[in-house]
Design goal:
This protein has 9 helices and 10 strands. The protein is an alpha/beta fold. The two termini are about 35 Å apart. The chain has a single domain, classed as 3-Layer(aba) Sandwich (Rossmann fold).
Length: about 240
């Protein structure tokens, strides 16, 4: 569902992402991890068509993000770490706008279910500027799930969420994967990645340092028993890279 080949992004002389390649298949939940400045958000924003690649190819559900931007975006939902809502639109109007933009027919029943699932019913008529960060996060996620895309990108999805919201988003991401949606989750919360993700993509200095299943990461990088936590694996990779 997601294919990235030799993706490179530079800002002047600064190299943010240095020729990476990876794939995310249907039903996979890939944890995108790495230290600050590793290129995680840049990669997600390029896949979402927000910033252009300097070089390389990014494909979503068979559509080249640069050559077929509208077709690619119709199959992708992206929730950034701090969603910017329309200040003057209500929560319900955000769902209406999403339905119109993505040409979703009969959107009202699923939109009502999403309001209930994210505990937004009481905020249905609240405008964007009145919402807390956690509420904005829930609205953005509700709009993303309403799209029913082929691929979903979440950048720090649990920021600002209460425990009930955290449980809801984890459950809904798992349900999307079971439906065959390709999911990428970028997070510094390694326990979340360990609990939720099937695969791991670790970036460091704009390059891929590991790509594979979480079990493979443990077995390959933490010894034959594979008993180390993802946090142990992460810091071992960082030490190995700093030593080379």
């Amino acid at each position: 569902m997601i294919q990235v080949s030799e993706f490179r992004k530079t800002y002047g002389r600064t190299v943010a992402v240095d020729g990476i390649r990876f794939e995310v298949g249907a039903g996979q939940v890939v944890g995108l991890i790495g230290p600050n400045g590793a290129g995680k958000t840049t990669t997600m924003r390029a896949l979402a068509g927000i910033i252009p690649p300097t070089a390389g190819r990014l494909v979503v559900d068979g559509h080249d993000v640069v050559r077929e931007p509208l077709a690619a975006k119709r199959q992708l939902a992206f929730v950034p770490d701090d969603p910017a809502l329309f200040e003057a639109l209500t929560v319900w109007e955000h769902l209406e706008f999403t339905a119109a933009a993505y040409r979703i027919r009969d959107f009202e029943p699923p939109a009502c279910r999403l309001l209930q699932q994210f505990e937004l019913e009481a905020k249905r008529n609240a405008i964007g500027q009145e919402l807390s960060r956690g509420m904005r996060q829930k609205v953005a996620m509700a709009c993303a799930f309403l799209q029913s895309p082929a691929a979903m990108l979440f950048d720090e999805p649990l920021t600002g969420l209460d425990p009930a919201g955290i449980r809801t988003i984890k459950r809904m991401i798992r349900e999307q994967a079971e439906r065959g949606v390709a999911v990428m989750v970028s997070s510094h919360l390694l326990p979340l990645v360990e609990d939720l993700c099937t695969h791991l993509l670790l970036l460091h200095h704009g390059r891929v340092r590991f790509s594979g299943t979480v079990a493979e990461a443990r077995q390959t990088l933490a010894g034959a028993t594979g008993q180390a936590s993802l946090e142990d694996v992460f810091f071992q990779i960082m030490r190995d890279q700093d030593a080379t």
